[in-house]
Amino acid sequence: MADDPHNEAPIHATVPVVGAGLTFSSVTDKISSLVLKRKTPLWWFIGFAISFVLVQLLLLTITHLLFTGIGIWGNNVPVGWAFDIINFVWWIGIGHAGTLISAILLLLRQKWRTSINRFAEAMTLFAVASAGLFPLLHAGRPWLLYWMFPYPNTMGIQPQFRSPLMWDVFAISTYGTVSALFWFIGLIPDFATLRDRTRSKPFQIIYGMLAMGWRGSARHWHRYEMAYLLLAGLATPLVLSVHTIVSFDFASGVIPGWHATIFPPYFVAGAIYAGFAMVLTLTIPLRKLFGLEDFITMRHIENMAKVMLATGLIVAYGYIMEAFFGWYSGNIYERFMIWNRIIGGPYRGFYWALILCNVLAPQIIWFKRFRKNLLVLFLLSIVVSIGMWLERFVIIVTSLHRDFLPSSWGMYSPTVWDFSMFLGTIGLFFALLFLFIRFLPIISIFEMRTILPEAEVEED
Amino acid sequence: MADERDKPESGENYGTDDTDVSASPGHPVSASPRPRVPVSPLYGVMAEFDNPNRLVAAARRTYEAGYRRINGYSPYPIEELWEAIGFHHTSLPVIVLIGGIIGALSGFFMQYYLAVFDYPLNVGGKPFNSWPSFIPITFEMTILCAAFAAVFGMLALNKLPQPYHPVFNAPNFKLASRDTFFLVIEANDPRYDHDEVVEFLKSLEPKEVTDVEV
Fold it and tell me: Out of A24, A150, A447, whose CB is closest to B114?
């Protein structure tokens, strides 16, 4: 048994990837009925209404911001980056779990990804949309943002390609584009299913146009599978590069607390950590509300918790190394920064809250009892999300507020508009997510069919 | 690329010069006597199966019997199926490779041209051609172009979007996106003879055999 690498029996013997007794028709009917049924559940309206109100708050904030300027935010010299960049990095990080689940786990042949990849990819897209708003608006005059891109212009100037901020423009826009392509490609066969199953004429036309005439031809499937595999192969280095480049925004600066070689791997691990926390936050209530326990089983939940624990430990290693580098450098500014951040500075409370949320709290995942307790995991995932937000706060604000010269020292406190902008993007994220779960299949139907027992073709 | 046996999919063949090949249409399938009313030309004959094993076995036997213009339709990708109908290679990887190379070259040389010739700027005394700093954007452009090539290359090779296709005329074909499997022998197959094909498909023990109109 152990010496036959093709024998998957021991793996399946634990907990199956899907519930027992599912068939092609029952999987298709169950997932497509979530979209096609006429009656929208009450919780959907409540959730969407709350998110929608927050979107209005976002629009209000943006309007005020455009009329007044970014002075309505609390960041000012020496803390020139604050909520805008904290939230940008936080959202981008959350997005990374989606690509990891859809691309990296596909290449690693992790079948359990099938139940959660569609949903996680949607989360990626909406998180990138929320993230993109911050640098866009922080630029001050967002209607001139196309100046960031190289194009022949009458001003006779061009971007400065040696700057990590310029790399960021390309990385984020490529990431958003490729994530959208990957997501759409994955949806095409499911659009065809919806087209064939809906009885409403307008939806037949809409889903029909989106399906582009997909008919499940074997030749099409072959090229489709090849395209999907290649996209996964392309998205894998892409997702690693995106947060690496985000970390370059900091690491290539000379500010103590930013100027560290550990940043790229530490940021990527943190991104996956935050992303899996968000996937858990969203999955646990959704599977309950939609009755998807057969599709998203305890094995999925446990696996996600384990990934969270593993990446959380890498992040903890990052914190230790950061402190070690500061001390070992022998540089007085670096040493002061570490002392100020951990022991004596005005923001030390944030640091310890971060350690509590990101390092200590997730250790309960070691115990199977907690790993199997949905309420505990749900609360823990929110704690980790808060912790990851605090991490970016600590990196950005505490590094900036003590400049090299004490005469330039300052303090940062957010204004009401900082909070309204942040809350507004949370509203945007959830509003898009609510629309997604109502109008599109939240689990990839055709990929679920492939992992059913009856899908196995006998070789002879 | 030469193996890209795409011909059976190209829709324009069916309506015109191929109609004489399918000169023996008839529905219901029970062949003769031929109805006198004008009938539309046939795209092919379709057999319906209720499980993937039957479909793959049937596809293998059809290929072995010498039919080449055949296609299978399934609700999810079945590797054995496209192998069975003799469709082994796709040129998509080459297209993606070309896309990636175009992205890499254009990404790097765009930066090189702009930073060295068009708008040379002294930043911290670095050389105008500070190529290591150009690598991240070169990398992102590589991925971007390769991803576009993968998506649009796949759609183009599959000739999608294609709003109309004859197989959608088959009565049960809506189930091809749910739980039913189909095998089609197309009318432009060199060995196509309507009655023979119907008999052959019936011998494969399908649930049903139907004609597919163009």
Answer: A150
Distance from CA of A60 to the nearest CA of B (A): 34
What is the distance between the alpha carbons of residues B184 and A217, in angstroms, rounded to a whole number? 10
Q: Of A460, A436, A392, which is closest to residue A98 (Cα–Cα)?
A: A436
Tokens of A100: 């990891």
User: What residues contact residue A434 under an 8 Å CB cut-off, 6+ apart?
Assistant: A44, A47, A48, A51
In total, chain A counts a number of residues equal to 460
Interface subset of B 79-138, CB within 8 angstroms of A: 79-82, 85, 87, 90, 92-93, 96, 110-111, 114-115, 118-119, 121, 123, 126, 130, 133-134, 136-137
pLDDT digits (tens, 9 = 90+) for A200-250: 999 999 999 999 999 999 999 999 999 999 999 999 999 999 999 999 999
Question: What CATH number labels A32-455?
Answer: 1.20.1630.10
* DSSP structure string for B91-121: SHHHHHHHHHHHHHHHHHHHHHHIIIIIS--
Query: Cα separations (Å) of A272 from A46, A49, A398, A457?
Result: 30, 30, 24, 35
pLDDT score at A89: 95
Cα–chain center distance at A249:
19
Question: What ipTM did this prediction achieve?
Answer: 0.91
